Each structure stands twice: as C-alpha cells, then as structure tokens.
Amino acid sequence: MIAWLDLAAGCSGDLLLGALVDAGVPLDVPAAAVAALPVERVRLVTEQVSRHGLGATRVHVHAPASTEHRTWADVRGLLGAAALAPGVRDGALAVFERLARAEARVHRTDPGSVHFHEVGALDALADVVGVVAGFAHLGLDRVTASPVALGSGSARSAHGLVPVPAPAVLELLAGAPVHAGPVPAEACTPTGAALLAHLVDEWTALPALRVQRVGTGAGARDPEQLPNVVRLVLGEPAAPAPARPVVLEANVDDLDPRLWPGVLDALLAAGASDAWLTPVLMKKGRPAHTLSALCAPGAVAAVQAAVFATTSTIGLRLVPVDKVALERAGTSVAVLGGRVGVKLAVAGGRLVNVSVEFEDVAALARERGLPVKEVLRAATAAAEQAYPVS
Q1: 133 Cβ partners below 8 Å, 6+ apart?
Q2: Could you tell me if 298 and 375 lie in one domain?
Q3: I need a surface site. Which of 95, 267, 342, 359 has the fewest CB within 10 A?
Q4: Are 331 and 182 within one domain?
C-alpha cells in the first residue's frame, strides 16, 4: 500500500495525527506510543470537526503546561528510556535529529547546543512519536506528498518574532517543492516539516493508485481561505495509463523535393514508427508538404532532432494521438526458388490480413531477372495460399 498526503493547507504534527486516525489507524496506536514516554499526564483525545464543510478528525494532545526547554540530549534520553517499538523509537529519534541539525544551521551552532523550545514541549514529543507509530502501523511501501504550503507573514516564538516560513522549516524542507499558500500565517510548523522530511519518499501530484481509504485531519485554526486540513489517501498502486504516441508535424514549402526520400529515411532511422508527406497549399497559394512522423514518446527528442537536421523547417507541432494496432507476426514463403517475407495481422485471434515485403519481392525480381509485378503476383498468391485469411 502507498500513501499520498495532500498538503495544500500546510502540515503540523496534530494535522498528521488527525489524518492517520481518520484513515483508520486506531487511536490506541499513537496513544500507546505516547504513554510509553517517561512523562506523566499526556493523553490523546479525538474530536469530530468541520472545516469548510469537510468532516475531519482533530486530535488534541492534553499535556501539563511546562516552560522546560529540552536539549537534543534531553530528547534523546527521553526517547531512549521510552518503552517504544524499535522502529518507532528510531523514527522519532531521526525526526528530532533532523530538527536539531536544522536549528543548529539556523542559529549557527552545533546540534548539541540546540535548545528545543516549542518542539521540545510535551505536545510536540507526543505528536512525533504518535505520527511515527501511526505510519509504522500502516506498513506502507511508499509515502508520497504534494507540494507543501508554508504560509507567510510572521509568527511569535520563544526567540521573538520570526518570519514565516520559519527558518528551520525552510532548512528541513530543502529540496522539497514548497509554496506560500493563500493563508498569511504559519501553515507548516517545524515539527510538521521534520516529520515530512523523514516520512516522504517522493513529492508528486496524486499518483496512480486504487483508493482504499482517505483520512482528513484538522488543525485548530479555521481560516477563511481554505480548509485547514491534511488529507491522507491510502491505496494500492495502479499502473499508469500508457504514454500516448506522438505525431510530429511541420509544413515545409522551401525544400528541394529530391531531399524528401532521405528525410523520411532519416526519421525512421531516428526511431519514428512511420513517416509520410502530404501535399498542401499554403498561404499566398504556395504549394508545400506537411511532413508527419509517428513515434513513441521516448523517441520524440531524436526524431525532432532529425527533422531539424534534414529539413528547412524552424518549428514543429507535437500532437499526442491514440493508436490501435493489430497483433503482428512475421514469416516467409518460398517463391521462384527464393524466399519472401510475409507480415500477418491478427484481430481477436483471427488472421485478417496477409501482405508480402515489397523490398524482398524487388530483390528477388532483380536476382531472377524478372519483372517485379510477376514476382509480386507470385509471392502474394503463395502467401495467401499458405496463410488463408479467415
């Protein structure tokens, strides 16, 4: 199973917790991880809320108020002493290590000297171990996510007034696709950013999947611009639709016509599955040709280069098309003491077309000193007798 996180409204630990529980992770899973911490009176409570008409789950972390500022060493000690599953402990440690390194870069110090303020509070600790435990419970093969809305403006912190996005958030999400989003406030917290940096394998639009469950987690705010939610979409990977073939086209009115056969040969050699010319009449009554080449998406670049190299055009049209092709098979038949290739086309298990390879026919005609039309007639008769169309 894979997951996709819709982060149009940003991200925080409580948003992710709410999405996990709403997607079916039993509240006991993150609650047990929180209870394993060597701290007292921290518990999780759920509430059903509405954000812009969307039903969502909000998870409250009830913890005693504290002004204690924990260091990275303090947090390491708490997690090391917790009776957590090894994978959950390791994941939580990795998240806080990311936070420590990001804060150290922002404050130009070393991670060991970092004092966690908001992110070292009991509710942030609960968010991290709860979210890591929830994702571990799902046993996902891959976690993907949309670009992250970070917010804008400024926010009050233990350091005073800081710009939004917070400097640590930008450090944590370096390399990830981000944008401000429509809400002029903090949309992504450092805790949320660290969790995303740890969890997300790929940043992408909704991937091809067969949806099984969707969880919607709500935050405390309810801004007017958009629903303050994170959506967690769970499903099995689905094969993406096959890439459509492409037709490259160019209208050419100034090329020596003797060059066209070589142009078509060059396009086929570059990977086009077919190439052809269509006579057209252009503006001011000028006669011209439309050059067309059909190719798979992977061959577009090479065929395009061949068009520009062999013709006088300075532009191309690229048109995705749908294509229906019959099953094909190749064989040969004996004709006049030689062999000629034969193409067979099958539809629905029935042979519907038989055609001989003209180049083989022409080569055999030269070899035998016979008119091509006689060899063609004999080869066609031999092929139709050997492979009668049903």
Answers
A1: 29, 30, 32, 33, 84, 85, 88
A2: no
A3: 359
A4: no
Domain boundary among 294, 320, 346: 320
The CB density around residue 254, as the number of other CB atoms within 10 Å, is: 9
Please write the tens of the pLDDT for every residue from 316-372: 999 999 988 899 999 999 999 999 999 999 998 899 999 999 999 999 999 999 999
SS3 267: helix
The domain tally of the chain equals 3
Domain ends where: 213, 237, 261? 237
Whether residues 223 and 150 share a domain: the answer is yes
What is the amino acid identity at position 206? L
- Domain coverage including residue 306: 246-320
| Single-letter amino acid code for the residue at 146 | S
Residue-wise pLDDT for 169-185, tens only, equals 999 999 999 999 999 99
Residues 6+ apart with CB under 8 A from 385: none
Measured CA to CA, the distance from residue 258 to residue 371 in angstroms comes to 26
| pLDDT averages per 10-residue partition of the chain, 390 residues | 97 96 96 90 92 95 76 88 93 94 86 65 89 97 97 75 89 96 93 96 95 96 94 93 91 95 97 96 93 96 97 96 90 93 91 93 94 94 88
Same domain? For 214 and 93 the reply is: yes
d(C-alpha 264, C-alpha 4), whole Å = 45
DSSP secondary structure of 166-213: -HHHHHHTTTS-EE--S-SSB-B-HHHHHHHHHH-SEE-SSPSEEEEE
What pTM was estimated for this model as a whole?
0.68
Burial category of 128 from C-beta neighbours within 10 Å (exposed 0-12, middle 13-18, buried 19 and up): buried
Per the listing, tokens 């925080």 go with 12
Q: Which CATH number goes with the domain that contains 278?
A: 3.30.70.1380
> What own/partner pairs with CB < 8 Å and gap ≥ 24 does 158-166 have?
158/69, 158/117, 158/118, 159/117, 166/190
- In this structure, the answer to whether residues 14 and 143 fall within a common structural domain is yes
User: SS3 for 101?
Assistant: helix
